[in-house]
Amino acid sequence: MSAPQPAAARPATGAPVAAGRPPRVLHLAQPVEGGVARVVADLVRAQSAAGLDAVAACPDGPLPERLRALGTPVRRWPATRSPGPSLAAEVRRLARLIDEVRPDLVHAHSAKAGLAGRLAVRGRIPTVFQPHAWSFEAVGGATAALALRWERWGTRWAARTVCVSEAERATGERAGIDGRWAVVANGVDTDRFRPAPAAAVRARLAPSAGLDPAAPLVVCVGRLCRQKGQDVLLRAWPAVLRAAPGARLVLVGDGPDGDRLRADAPPSVLFAGAVADVRPWYQAADLVVLPSRWEGMALAPLEAMACGRPVVVTDVDGARESLPPATADRCLVPAEDPAALAGAVTGLLLAPDLGAGLGAGARRHVLAAHDVRHTAEAVAGVYRDLLGHRPAASRPALPGAGERAGHGRAFGPGRDTGARRTAARVQPTEHRESNHP
Protein backbone atom coordinates (compact mmCIF):
# COMPACT_ATOMS: atom_id res chain seq x y z
CA MET A 1 0.00 0.00 0.00
CA SER A 2 1.27 3.48 -0.80
CA ALA A 3 -0.49 5.50 1.88
CA PRO A 4 1.76 8.24 3.29
CA GLN A 5 3.26 7.96 6.74
CA PRO A 6 0.28 8.72 9.00
CA ALA A 7 0.17 11.39 11.64
CA ALA A 8 -0.22 8.61 14.20
CA ALA A 9 3.51 7.92 13.86
CA ARG A 10 4.00 10.97 16.12
CA PRO A 11 3.84 10.45 19.88
CA ALA A 12 0.29 10.73 21.14
CA THR A 13 -0.54 13.70 23.29
CA GLY A 14 -3.04 14.20 26.09
CA ALA A 15 -3.47 13.93 29.84
CA PRO A 16 -1.63 11.15 31.70
CA VAL A 17 -3.60 7.96 32.10
CA ALA A 18 -5.20 7.88 35.54
CA ALA A 19 -4.21 4.97 37.74
CA GLY A 20 -6.92 2.37 38.09
CA ARG A 21 -9.09 3.44 35.17
CA PRO A 22 -10.50 0.64 32.99
CA PRO A 23 -8.80 -0.10 29.67
CA ARG A 24 -10.03 2.02 26.79
CA VAL A 25 -10.83 -0.01 23.68
CA LEU A 26 -11.44 1.70 20.35
CA HIS A 27 -13.66 -0.35 18.03
CA LEU A 28 -13.05 0.63 14.44
CA ALA A 29 -15.52 -0.23 11.67
CA GLN A 30 -16.00 0.64 8.02
CA PRO A 31 -19.55 1.08 6.67
CA VAL A 32 -21.13 -2.18 7.85
CA GLU A 33 -24.63 -3.53 8.18
CA GLY A 34 -26.30 -6.81 8.99
CA GLY A 35 -24.24 -9.42 10.80
CA VAL A 36 -21.01 -7.50 11.35
CA ALA A 37 -22.88 -4.50 12.73
CA ARG A 38 -24.74 -6.75 15.16
CA VAL A 39 -21.49 -8.45 16.23
CA VAL A 40 -19.86 -5.09 16.97
CA ALA A 41 -22.89 -3.73 18.82
CA ASP A 42 -23.31 -6.88 20.92
CA LEU A 43 -19.61 -6.93 21.79
CA VAL A 44 -19.53 -3.25 22.75
CA ARG A 45 -22.63 -3.65 24.91
CA ALA A 46 -21.14 -6.62 26.74
CA GLN A 47 -17.79 -4.89 27.22
CA SER A 48 -19.38 -1.73 28.58
CA ALA A 49 -21.42 -3.83 31.03
CA ALA A 50 -18.19 -5.55 32.12
CA GLY A 51 -16.57 -2.21 32.94
CA LEU A 52 -14.42 -1.51 29.89
CA ASP A 53 -14.19 1.98 28.43
CA ALA A 54 -15.50 1.12 24.95
CA VAL A 55 -15.36 3.79 22.24
CA ALA A 56 -16.23 3.40 18.55
CA ALA A 57 -15.06 5.09 15.36
CA CYS A 58 -17.08 4.50 12.20
CA PRO A 59 -18.83 6.29 9.32
CA ASP A 60 -22.42 7.48 9.55
CA GLY A 61 -25.05 4.78 9.25
CA PRO A 62 -27.04 2.23 11.25
CA LEU A 63 -24.11 1.07 13.38
CA PRO A 64 -23.28 4.41 15.06
CA GLU A 65 -26.99 4.99 15.69
CA ARG A 66 -27.23 1.63 17.41
CA LEU A 67 -24.08 2.26 19.46
CA ARG A 68 -25.22 5.71 20.59
CA ALA A 69 -28.48 4.17 21.73
CA LEU A 70 -26.40 1.91 23.96
CA GLY A 71 -24.64 4.95 25.44
CA THR A 72 -21.35 4.24 23.64
CA PRO A 73 -19.22 7.26 22.67
CA VAL A 74 -18.95 7.30 18.88
CA ARG A 75 -16.38 9.28 16.90
CA ARG A 76 -17.22 9.94 13.26
CA TRP A 77 -14.66 8.48 10.88
CA PRO A 78 -15.65 9.17 7.24
CA ALA A 79 -14.61 6.16 5.18
CA THR A 80 -15.76 4.11 2.21
CA ARG A 81 -16.59 0.41 2.31
CA SER A 82 -13.66 -0.60 0.09
CA PRO A 83 -10.13 0.73 -0.54
CA GLY A 84 -9.90 3.51 -3.10
CA PRO A 85 -8.39 6.92 -3.81
CA SER A 86 -9.63 8.24 -0.45
CA LEU A 87 -7.63 5.71 1.57
CA ALA A 88 -4.65 7.97 2.37
CA ALA A 89 -6.90 10.74 3.70
CA GLU A 90 -8.94 8.20 5.69
CA VAL A 91 -5.77 6.88 7.32
CA ARG A 92 -4.64 10.40 8.23
CA ARG A 93 -8.02 11.22 9.76
CA LEU A 94 -8.01 7.98 11.69
CA ALA A 95 -4.48 8.61 12.99
CA ARG A 96 -5.55 12.01 14.35
CA LEU A 97 -8.64 10.45 15.91
CA ILE A 98 -6.52 7.80 17.64
CA ASP A 99 -4.22 10.52 19.00
CA GLU A 100 -7.30 12.22 20.49
CA VAL A 101 -8.96 9.10 21.91
CA ARG A 102 -5.71 7.58 23.26
CA PRO A 103 -6.98 3.99 23.40
CA ASP A 104 -5.09 1.23 25.17
CA LEU A 105 -6.10 -1.14 22.39
CA VAL A 106 -7.63 -0.85 18.90
CA HIS A 107 -10.04 -3.53 17.67
CA ALA A 108 -10.57 -3.24 13.90
CA HIS A 109 -13.52 -5.06 12.33
CA SER A 110 -13.57 -6.23 8.68
CA ALA A 111 -11.10 -5.75 5.86
CA LYS A 112 -11.24 -2.02 5.16
CA ALA A 113 -11.12 -0.97 8.81
CA GLY A 114 -8.37 -3.52 9.33
CA LEU A 115 -6.40 -1.96 6.48
CA ALA A 116 -6.80 1.63 7.62
CA GLY A 117 -6.42 0.81 11.30
CA ARG A 118 -3.18 -1.08 10.92
CA LEU A 119 -1.72 1.59 8.64
CA ALA A 120 -2.66 4.28 11.16
CA VAL A 121 -1.31 2.48 14.25
CA ARG A 122 1.56 0.44 12.79
CA GLY A 123 2.09 -1.54 15.95
CA ARG A 124 2.45 1.41 18.34
CA ILE A 125 -0.38 0.10 20.52
CA PRO A 126 -1.92 -3.37 20.62
CA THR A 127 -4.16 -3.86 17.60
CA VAL A 128 -6.69 -6.65 17.20
CA PHE A 129 -7.84 -7.34 13.64
CA GLN A 130 -11.03 -9.34 13.09
CA PRO A 131 -11.63 -10.01 9.38
CA HIS A 132 -15.22 -11.36 9.63
CA ALA A 133 -14.40 -13.34 6.41
CA TRP A 134 -11.30 -12.76 4.33
CA SER A 135 -11.27 -9.93 1.80
CA PHE A 136 -9.41 -11.95 -0.85
CA GLU A 137 -12.31 -14.42 -1.00
CA ALA A 138 -14.75 -11.65 -1.89
CA VAL A 139 -13.03 -10.59 -5.11
CA GLY A 140 -11.14 -12.15 -7.99
CA GLY A 141 -8.21 -11.64 -10.32
CA ALA A 142 -5.73 -8.87 -9.64
CA THR A 143 -7.88 -7.39 -6.86
CA ALA A 144 -7.77 -10.67 -4.93
CA ALA A 145 -4.01 -10.88 -5.39
CA LEU A 146 -3.58 -7.34 -4.03
CA ALA A 147 -5.88 -8.04 -1.07
CA LEU A 148 -3.94 -11.19 -0.19
CA ARG A 149 -0.59 -9.42 -0.54
CA TRP A 150 -1.80 -6.75 1.87
CA GLU A 151 -3.06 -9.30 4.42
CA ARG A 152 0.29 -11.08 4.35
CA TRP A 153 2.08 -7.77 4.87
CA GLY A 154 -0.33 -6.14 7.32
CA THR A 155 -0.39 -9.06 9.75
CA ARG A 156 2.88 -7.76 11.26
CA TRP A 157 0.86 -4.86 12.71
CA ALA A 158 -1.82 -7.03 14.32
CA ALA A 159 -1.02 -8.16 17.85
CA ARG A 160 -3.82 -10.70 17.36
CA THR A 161 -5.88 -11.74 14.37
CA VAL A 162 -9.21 -12.93 15.75
CA CYS A 163 -11.02 -15.43 13.53
CA VAL A 164 -14.60 -16.45 14.16
CA SER A 165 -13.97 -20.07 13.26
CA GLU A 166 -11.15 -22.57 12.99
CA ALA A 167 -11.97 -22.83 9.30
CA GLU A 168 -11.45 -19.08 8.82
CA ARG A 169 -8.09 -19.32 10.57
CA ALA A 170 -7.10 -22.31 8.42
CA THR A 171 -8.05 -20.39 5.27
CA GLY A 172 -5.74 -17.56 6.36
CA GLU A 173 -2.89 -19.93 7.12
CA ARG A 174 -3.27 -21.74 3.78
CA ALA A 175 -3.13 -18.35 2.07
CA GLY A 176 0.25 -17.64 3.69
CA ILE A 177 -0.89 -15.18 6.36
CA ASP A 178 1.50 -15.54 9.30
CA GLY A 179 -0.87 -14.34 12.00
CA ARG A 180 -0.81 -14.38 15.76
CA TRP A 181 -4.11 -16.21 15.82
CA ALA A 182 -7.01 -16.36 18.23
CA VAL A 183 -10.26 -18.16 17.43
CA VAL A 184 -13.42 -16.81 19.06
CA ALA A 185 -16.67 -18.19 17.69
CA ASN A 186 -19.47 -15.76 16.94
CA GLY A 187 -22.23 -15.49 19.50
CA VAL A 188 -25.74 -14.05 19.63
CA ASP A 189 -27.92 -12.53 22.31
CA THR A 190 -29.93 -15.58 23.35
CA ASP A 191 -32.26 -13.50 25.50
CA ARG A 192 -33.20 -11.34 22.51
CA PHE A 193 -33.23 -14.15 19.92
CA ARG A 194 -35.50 -16.76 21.45
CA PRO A 195 -38.38 -19.00 20.34
CA ALA A 196 -41.92 -17.78 19.89
CA PRO A 197 -45.04 -19.58 18.61
CA ALA A 198 -44.62 -19.60 14.84
CA ALA A 199 -48.34 -19.50 14.05
CA ALA A 200 -48.95 -16.39 16.15
CA VAL A 201 -45.94 -14.54 14.72
CA ARG A 202 -46.86 -15.51 11.16
CA ALA A 203 -50.42 -14.31 11.67
CA ARG A 204 -49.08 -10.89 12.66
CA LEU A 205 -46.83 -10.73 9.59
CA ALA A 206 -49.36 -12.09 7.12
CA PRO A 207 -51.53 -8.99 6.48
CA SER A 208 -48.62 -6.70 5.57
CA ALA A 209 -46.52 -9.36 3.85
CA GLY A 210 -49.27 -11.07 1.88
CA LEU A 211 -48.50 -14.48 3.42
CA ASP A 212 -50.79 -17.45 3.77
CA PRO A 213 -50.30 -18.36 7.44
CA ALA A 214 -50.82 -22.05 6.61
CA ALA A 215 -48.25 -22.20 3.78
CA PRO A 216 -44.77 -23.66 4.38
CA LEU A 217 -42.39 -20.72 4.92
CA VAL A 218 -38.68 -20.56 4.11
CA VAL A 219 -36.75 -17.46 5.16
CA CYS A 220 -33.32 -16.22 4.08
CA VAL A 221 -31.82 -13.29 6.01
CA GLY A 222 -28.79 -11.53 4.57
CA ARG A 223 -27.48 -8.72 2.46
CA LEU A 224 -28.59 -9.15 -1.15
CA CYS A 225 -25.16 -9.69 -2.65
CA ARG A 226 -23.07 -12.38 -4.30
CA GLN A 227 -21.55 -13.52 -1.01
CA LYS A 228 -24.88 -14.59 0.46
CA GLY A 229 -25.88 -16.67 -2.57
CA GLN A 230 -29.57 -15.77 -2.86
CA ASP A 231 -29.25 -16.34 -6.62
CA VAL A 232 -28.42 -20.00 -5.93
CA LEU A 233 -31.48 -20.26 -3.69
CA LEU A 234 -33.68 -18.82 -6.44
CA ARG A 235 -32.33 -21.44 -8.87
CA ALA A 236 -33.17 -24.15 -6.32
CA TRP A 237 -36.63 -22.80 -5.55
CA PRO A 238 -38.61 -24.30 -8.51
CA ALA A 239 -37.61 -27.81 -7.37
CA VAL A 240 -38.79 -26.99 -3.84
CA LEU A 241 -42.14 -25.78 -5.19
CA ARG A 242 -42.65 -28.98 -7.17
CA ALA A 243 -42.32 -30.97 -3.96
CA ALA A 244 -44.09 -28.48 -1.69
CA PRO A 245 -46.68 -26.53 -3.72
CA GLY A 246 -47.79 -23.37 -2.00
CA ALA A 247 -44.48 -22.85 -0.17
CA ARG A 248 -43.29 -19.27 0.13
CA LEU A 249 -39.75 -17.92 0.25
CA VAL A 250 -38.97 -14.61 1.94
CA LEU A 251 -35.68 -12.79 1.34
CA VAL A 252 -35.00 -10.37 4.20
CA GLY A 253 -32.41 -7.70 3.51
CA ASP A 254 -31.27 -5.28 0.86
CA GLY A 255 -28.13 -4.83 -1.18
CA PRO A 256 -26.54 -4.32 -4.58
CA ASP A 257 -28.08 -7.44 -6.17
CA GLY A 258 -31.64 -6.60 -5.16
CA ASP A 259 -32.91 -5.50 -8.57
CA ARG A 260 -31.43 -8.48 -10.38
CA LEU A 261 -32.79 -10.95 -7.83
CA ARG A 262 -36.26 -9.41 -8.02
CA ALA A 263 -36.22 -9.71 -11.80
CA ASP A 264 -35.38 -13.44 -11.56
CA ALA A 265 -37.81 -14.32 -8.77
CA PRO A 266 -41.17 -16.08 -9.28
CA PRO A 267 -44.36 -14.80 -7.55
CA SER A 268 -43.89 -17.19 -4.62
CA VAL A 269 -40.83 -15.20 -3.49
CA LEU A 270 -41.36 -12.18 -1.26
CA PHE A 271 -38.73 -9.46 -0.80
CA ALA A 272 -39.15 -8.01 2.68
CA GLY A 273 -36.32 -5.49 2.31
CA ALA A 274 -34.17 -4.26 5.15
CA VAL A 275 -36.05 -4.53 8.44
CA ALA A 276 -35.31 -2.99 11.82
CA ASP A 277 -35.97 -6.26 13.63
CA VAL A 278 -35.34 -9.63 11.96
CA ARG A 279 -36.62 -11.71 14.88
CA PRO A 280 -40.24 -12.09 13.69
CA TRP A 281 -39.04 -13.54 10.39
CA TYR A 282 -36.92 -16.17 12.12
CA GLN A 283 -39.73 -17.00 14.53
CA ALA A 284 -42.30 -17.29 11.73
CA ALA A 285 -40.19 -19.57 9.55
CA ASP A 286 -40.48 -23.31 9.16
CA LEU A 287 -36.89 -23.27 7.93
CA VAL A 288 -34.12 -20.66 7.62
CA VAL A 289 -31.63 -20.97 4.72
CA LEU A 290 -28.33 -19.21 4.05
CA PRO A 291 -26.67 -20.36 0.79
CA SER A 292 -23.45 -18.33 1.16
CA ARG A 293 -20.44 -18.60 -1.13
CA TRP A 294 -18.03 -17.66 1.67
CA GLU A 295 -18.20 -16.66 5.33
CA GLY A 296 -16.13 -16.60 8.50
CA MET A 297 -19.04 -17.77 10.62
CA ALA A 298 -22.40 -16.39 9.52
CA LEU A 299 -24.55 -14.77 12.18
CA ALA A 300 -27.99 -15.37 10.62
CA PRO A 301 -27.97 -19.16 11.16
CA LEU A 302 -26.96 -18.66 14.81
CA GLU A 303 -29.80 -16.17 15.30
CA ALA A 304 -32.26 -18.54 13.63
CA MET A 305 -31.14 -21.48 15.78
CA ALA A 306 -31.39 -19.30 18.90
CA CYS A 307 -35.03 -18.78 17.87
CA GLY A 308 -35.49 -22.55 17.78
CA ARG A 309 -35.59 -22.87 14.01
CA PRO A 310 -33.85 -25.49 11.85
CA VAL A 311 -31.38 -24.17 9.29
CA VAL A 312 -29.86 -25.24 6.00
CA VAL A 313 -26.48 -23.67 5.23
CA THR A 314 -23.70 -24.16 2.70
CA ASP A 315 -20.44 -25.82 3.68
CA VAL A 316 -18.31 -22.68 3.81
CA ASP A 317 -15.96 -21.48 6.56
CA GLY A 318 -17.59 -21.62 9.97
CA ALA A 319 -20.73 -23.49 8.89
CA ARG A 320 -19.84 -26.90 10.34
CA GLU A 321 -18.60 -25.28 13.54
CA SER A 322 -21.83 -23.34 13.98
CA LEU A 323 -24.16 -26.36 13.65
CA PRO A 324 -24.96 -29.02 16.24
CA PRO A 325 -22.52 -31.82 15.33
CA ALA A 326 -25.18 -34.43 14.54
CA THR A 327 -27.08 -32.29 12.01
CA ALA A 328 -24.51 -31.85 9.24
CA ASP A 329 -25.96 -34.60 7.05
CA ARG A 330 -29.36 -32.86 6.90
CA CYS A 331 -28.45 -29.19 7.30
CA LEU A 332 -25.20 -28.75 5.36
CA VAL A 333 -24.93 -28.69 1.54
CA PRO A 334 -22.15 -27.81 -0.91
CA ALA A 335 -21.91 -24.18 -1.97
CA GLU A 336 -23.29 -23.23 -5.40
CA ASP A 337 -25.23 -26.51 -5.76
CA PRO A 338 -28.93 -25.69 -6.36
CA ALA A 339 -29.95 -29.35 -6.58
CA ALA A 340 -28.42 -30.26 -3.21
CA LEU A 341 -29.88 -27.12 -1.67
CA ALA A 342 -33.35 -27.93 -3.00
CA GLY A 343 -33.11 -31.48 -1.68
CA ALA A 344 -32.17 -30.38 1.84
CA VAL A 345 -34.86 -27.68 1.96
CA THR A 346 -37.53 -30.03 0.62
CA GLY A 347 -36.57 -32.80 3.02
CA LEU A 348 -37.12 -30.59 6.06
CA LEU A 349 -40.26 -28.87 4.75
CA LEU A 350 -41.91 -32.26 4.19
CA ALA A 351 -40.95 -33.49 7.66
CA PRO A 352 -42.20 -30.77 10.04
CA ASP A 353 -41.79 -32.93 13.16
CA LEU A 354 -38.15 -33.52 12.26
CA GLY A 355 -37.69 -29.80 11.68
CA ALA A 356 -39.20 -28.98 15.06
CA GLY A 357 -36.87 -31.43 16.76
CA LEU A 358 -33.85 -30.02 14.97
CA GLY A 359 -34.91 -26.50 15.94
CA ALA A 360 -35.18 -27.39 19.63
CA GLY A 361 -31.75 -29.01 19.52
CA ALA A 362 -30.35 -26.00 17.70
CA ARG A 363 -31.55 -23.70 20.49
CA ARG A 364 -29.78 -25.84 23.09
CA HIS A 365 -26.61 -25.84 21.00
CA VAL A 366 -26.53 -22.06 20.68
CA LEU A 367 -27.11 -21.62 24.42
CA ALA A 368 -24.14 -23.88 25.14
CA ALA A 369 -21.69 -22.78 22.46
CA HIS A 370 -22.71 -19.49 20.84
CA ASP A 371 -24.13 -17.22 23.52
CA VAL A 372 -22.71 -13.71 23.08
CA ARG A 373 -21.63 -13.76 26.73
CA HIS A 374 -19.19 -16.57 25.91
CA THR A 375 -17.91 -14.56 22.95
CA ALA A 376 -17.41 -11.40 24.99
CA GLU A 377 -15.49 -13.27 27.69
CA ALA A 378 -13.27 -14.93 25.09
CA VAL A 379 -12.48 -11.55 23.50
CA ALA A 380 -11.75 -10.20 26.99
CA GLY A 381 -9.23 -13.02 27.34
CA VAL A 382 -7.50 -11.86 24.14
CA TYR A 383 -7.37 -8.32 25.54
CA ARG A 384 -5.93 -9.60 28.82
CA ASP A 385 -3.14 -11.33 26.94
CA LEU A 386 -2.25 -8.10 25.18
CA LEU A 387 -2.74 -5.56 27.95
CA GLY A 388 -1.39 -7.51 30.90
CA HIS A 389 -2.19 -6.33 34.42
CA ARG A 390 0.19 -3.43 35.06
CA PRO A 391 -1.24 -0.31 36.72
CA ALA A 392 -2.50 2.23 34.24
CA ALA A 393 -0.04 4.85 35.45
CA SER A 394 2.88 2.69 34.32
CA ARG A 395 1.70 2.57 30.70
CA PRO A 396 4.27 4.09 28.34
CA ALA A 397 3.00 7.12 26.46
CA LEU A 398 3.82 5.44 23.17
CA PRO A 399 4.80 1.76 23.27
CA GLY A 400 6.94 0.47 20.47
CA ALA A 401 5.90 -2.26 18.09
CA GLY A 402 5.57 -5.58 19.82
CA GLU A 403 5.40 -4.11 23.35
CA ARG A 404 2.49 -4.81 25.68
CA ALA A 405 0.70 -1.64 26.71
CA GLY A 406 -1.94 -0.73 29.26
CA HIS A 407 -3.00 -2.43 32.42
CA GLY A 408 -6.27 -4.35 32.44
CA ARG A 409 -7.16 -4.64 36.10
CA ALA A 410 -10.82 -4.68 35.06
CA PHE A 411 -10.06 -8.08 33.53
CA GLY A 412 -8.29 -9.60 36.51
CA PRO A 413 -4.78 -11.09 36.25
CA GLY A 414 -3.36 -11.06 32.77
CA ARG A 415 -1.23 -13.55 30.95
CA ASP A 416 0.85 -13.32 27.80
CA THR A 417 0.64 -16.41 25.69
CA GLY A 418 3.19 -15.18 23.17
CA ALA A 419 1.67 -17.68 20.77
CA ARG A 420 2.17 -16.90 17.15
CA ARG A 421 0.26 -19.80 15.69
CA THR A 422 -1.68 -21.05 18.67
CA ALA A 423 -5.37 -20.22 18.61
CA ALA A 424 -7.08 -19.11 21.81
CA ARG A 425 -10.54 -20.63 21.75
CA VAL A 426 -13.72 -19.76 23.57
CA GLN A 427 -14.60 -22.39 26.16
CA PRO A 428 -18.40 -22.40 26.39
CA THR A 429 -19.97 -22.69 29.80
CA GLU A 430 -23.35 -24.15 30.57
CA HIS A 431 -26.11 -21.57 30.18
CA ARG A 432 -29.49 -22.83 31.30
CA GLU A 433 -32.67 -21.77 29.57
CA SER A 434 -34.82 -19.46 31.65
CA ASN A 435 -38.43 -20.41 32.28
CA HIS A 436 -40.13 -17.46 30.64
CA PRO A 437 -41.25 -17.95 27.00
Automatic annotation (TrEMBL):
<feature type="compositionally biased region" description="Low complexity">
    <location>
        <begin position="414"/>
        <end position="425"/>
    </location>
</feature>
<dbReference type="Pfam" id="PF13439">
    <property type="entry name" value="Glyco_transf_4"/>
</dbReference>
<dbReference type="InterPro" id="IPR028098">
    <property type="entry name" value="Glyco_trans_4-like_N"/>
</dbReference>
<dbReference type="Pfam" id="PF13692">
    <property type="entry name" value="Glyco_trans_1_4"/>
</dbReference>
<feature type="domain" description="Glycosyltransferase subfamily 4-like N-terminal">
    <location>
        <begin position="34"/>
        <end position="192"/>
    </location>
</feature>
<dbReference type="InterPro" id="IPR050194">
    <property type="entry name" value="Glycosyltransferase_grp1"/>
</dbReference>
<feature type="region of interest" description="Disordered">
    <location>
        <begin position="1"/>
        <end position="20"/>
    </location>
</feature>
<protein>
    <submittedName>
        <fullName>Glycosyltransferase</fullName>
    </submittedName>
</protein>
<keyword id="KW-0328">Glycosyltransferase</keyword>
<keyword id="KW-0808">Transferase</keyword>
<feature type="region of interest" description="Disordered">
    <location>
        <begin position="394"/>
        <end position="437"/>
    </location>
</feature>
<feature type="compositionally biased region" description="Basic and acidic residues">
    <location>
        <begin position="428"/>
        <end position="437"/>
    </location>
</feature>
